[in-house]
Amino acid sequence: MRKIESVDFFYLSMPEVTTEGDGSQDALLVRVSAGGVVGWGECEASPLVSIAAFVCPISHGACRPVGASVRGQVIEGPEDISRIALQVQLDSMDLLQAAHTWSGVEIALWDLLGKCRGEPIWKMLGYRESFAKFPYASQLFGDTPEQTYERAVTARKSRFHAVKFGWGPIGRGDLNTDIAHFSAAREGLGKDCRLMIDAGQVFGENVEAAAERLPALETVDAVWLEEPFHTSALAAYSALALRSEKIKLAAGEGAHNLHMLAHLIDYGKVGFIQIDCGRIGGIGVGKRVADYVLARDVSFVNHTFTSHLALSASLQPYAGLREHEICEYPFAPKALAWDLTTNHLERDRDGCVRAPDSHGLGITIDTEKARSFLVDVDIRVKGQSLFASSNQF
Amino acid sequence: MRKIESVDFFYLSMPEVTTEGDGSQDALLVRVSAGGVVGWGECEASPLVSIAAFVCPISHGACRPVGASVRGQVIEGPEDISRIALQVQLDSMDLLQAAHTWSGVEIALWDLLGKCRGEPIWKMLGYRESFAKFPYASQLFGDTPEQTYERAVTARKSRFHAVKFGWGPIGRGDLNTDIAHFSAAREGLGKDCRLMIDAGQVFGENVEAAAERLPALETVDAVWLEEPFHTSALAAYSALALRSEKIKLAAGEGAHNLHMLAHLIDYGKVGFIQIDCGRIGGIGVGKRVADYVLARDVSFVNHTFTSHLALSASLQPYAGLREHEICEYPFAPKALAWDLTTNHLERDRDGCVRAPDSHGLGITIDTEKARSFLVDVDIRVKGQSLFASSNQF
């Protein structure tokens, strides 16, 4: 009987982390060992807080550390992952951060199982084939329309057939500035490249402010408008969805359980649901979302702005869905996110990527390089060490 | 111009914390100082994780520590609290625990403002009067129906006209055991005492399992069935709400923003919305929920299972609503939760409580006693101390 023997967290960071909206500036790697086999996962985001949620003292029966539900558990098959997930949900009910912490552990458990069984995760999820996905380059708007234009040109030259621009000045200045950025993006990309826009929740729940941008988004033929509002502002999402036949809404990265994703679809009327397995409770929840969208007129897209370990994890839940073909692909991540792994999900000759056929996530950690980004962490409570970072990869 | 000069966290705990569902076993006190005035608040729950969310290193622009949005801010009036709340929402968007951390800070800011202005918080919220609330004794089911009966008798003898039983064995064994507990509670309370039942999310999203209990709940004349499901299982809530004319559903403590509470009302069809200001984003969000329920056939109830500081905070948002008269009242909290404050919201001759008329929260911390529960915490990142507990109350 295979039991979880150890769960180790590695907090990695660029030497300097800035306020730009680039999620690849740090990472929380999780390593799980059971029966001599090792699996890797990655939590999104805020490494220190997610570590604390794993090791913290118990507050009461429904507010236990995530570690209490994981350590020593039997892990023989996917049903064990579901069982542990349910225990985390109940025993860490009042520990808000638990979902993010558990997500990385869950991914590592799938990786571990895949290696034990000699199967890719998507096969364990019931898929027969891992279909090609059409990656879009995910990047930030420039500070000026000229910079946005330059970035669009660069992306097109890099053989991307779809590009998403996000955050930056959008929604923070006047309408015309935003329109100038949208137009610059389209101009730089040329006619045939698909363009997505990410507003980074800048409109709060102000439907009118977001709606003002819709005509310009139609003009530049945007595929979607992402996260105009707070993830939970469902009424604002559905109100905006009614305002354009052409521009669909995208959201989901801010959700941290299956219900919240279903609500975005059912009540928020989003057209693209974006799943970050490092936040929503892992690959198992991702697969349940994939099953959910299949019965509805909604597209599944991964959300990934970090490493290729996280990218592989987020591709697994919809690897076998041929029609759900769009994939977020970190275009210009920080060195940390790239160097973390020895192999990468390279684009093929058609510019496409797919979840690997190799065992588990199919991604190998570059422990030597990862070590160079390691952040020293020490958490002590009542004089006892609850967590001390280790460089023993 | 008054600026926030310091924000200090005090992690308090009983010497031993067990797995029982008693949230009064630890506490996270927050003290905010500005212009020589001090305000106090309390975060629910998991002190270590909420501290980490205040002091953690930045991950990127939308994942900053809560502290970055609070320290050094101007605090002159309620509008400043709203402004900081919005900044936390945007700048800590990807930091899941942020809502819990911010909640305690927000409460402390209201307390501070009330002391500066010489007003109770409910008056600053726009209420003219603080109406009497009808407290229900909140306690756990016994392990056996006999124990539940004894607890009911004790509660009745303590002059409570309403009692809530929760958690314990409910939903974990067979139907008849649950019915025996419900009956024992009613028998011990007598005919005239109101009875509420809290299922502690034990049914997950299993509507049928919860619905099986409805006839017994009708027989014992329960006022509500609380949290049969996961806070986000809105479809399950609304499905169950349709199954009984008499038994209303209650929920809300698991929510951590205004939207989630509105969803419980609009989509989940709950009849009682339960607000813990230490989790949902503070007193300001509580007031917005109160405004929301006023336009709907829903009752506002506080959720409080900890200290009288937290109790006062959770009474403020609906202090001025005469018809919303039910109030959760910690019946048998651990010594920590009682000793923490020098004064308490004692029940008057009618057995009622009300939000105090004194300034701010109207509750004084017993620093000497609090010190005896203090937990030593030390968080170091990159060799730098991010948090070191202080006994300087």
**Low-confidence spans of chain A: pLDDT under 50, at least 5 residues?**
none
Radius of gyration of chain A: 21 Å
Overall geometry of chain A: globular
Please give the share of residues in helix of chain A. Answer: 25-40%
Mean pLDDT of chain A, to the nearest integer, reads 96
- The counted number of beta strands of chain A is 13
Give the end-to-end Cα distance of chain A, rounded to a whole number of Å: 25 Å
Question: Biggest protein-protein interface?
Answer: A-B, 68 and 67 residues
Classify the beta-strand content of chain A into a percent band.
15-25%
Biggest sheet details of chain A: 8 strands, parallel
Oligomeric state of this protein = homodimer
Structural class of chain A: alpha/beta
Tell me what you see in this structure.
The structure is a homodimer of 393-residue chains. Chain A contains 15 helices and 13 strands. The first copy, chain A, has helices at 47-55, 66-70, 78-91, 98-117, 121-124, 145-157, 175-189, 207-211, 214-219, 234-241, 258-266, 283-294, 308-315, 335-339, 367-371; strands spanning 4-13, 26-34, 37-43, 134-140, 162-166, 194-198, 222-226, 248-251, 272-275, 299-302, 326-330, 377-381, 384-388. In chain A, the strands form three sheets. Chain A has an eight-stranded parallel beta sheet with strand order 10-9-8-7-6-5-4-11. Chain A has a three-stranded antiparallel beta sheet with strand order 1-2-3. In chain A, α1 packs across α4 and α3 (78-91) runs antiparallel to α4 (98-117). The mean pLDDT of chain A is 96. Chains A and B meet through α1, α3, α11 and β12 of A and α1, α3, α11 and β12 of B.
